[in-house]
Amino acid sequence: MTTTAPRLRDGVTLVVDPPVTAPFLGEIVDLWVRVTNAGGAVGFLPPIDAAMVHPVAEATLRRVAAGVDTFVGLVDGGGHLLAWCVLEDGGGGLRRHWRTVVRVMVDPDRQAAGYGRMLLDAVHDVARDRLGLDALMLQVRGGTGTEEFYRRSGYELVGRLPGAIRLAPGDDRDELVMWRRLGDLAP
Question: What are phi and psi of 172, to 5 degrees?
């Protein structure tokens, strides 16, 4: 496991596959709750609390601790988690050359400070240089506008699952599938 890499800009440190401790799990849960309750599309609908997120976060970090998936995060100078996501393994075999980016979140109190872009740039570097991957896929909830953010980071829309996400009766959203080849130059 790699715990940290050189500092990025503004005193931010890249963290890859850190040891999974109770305090770290607590930080993940706290950020996940805050992101969801601020309107982030990260697997839950607001309002949520730590008890709802904890089992999902635990399962996510178990896969990281087992070496199946890769955690990529950003921490500030005080060691506080700013942003994180996971590169989820698709099971190897015919898909071992790419991963799915899941759970992308940035501290809602730090939005619009460039941490989302910094996280994605780090994800691309980790995926290409450390994991030897050729491409990444991610899925976004339609109607959030996040697909434009990912497009600016080199992802292209390659599919749409109409009405695949049901937020409430009568409120179905498309799931957008986006793909980025890692050898492509970033825009």
Answer: -95, 140
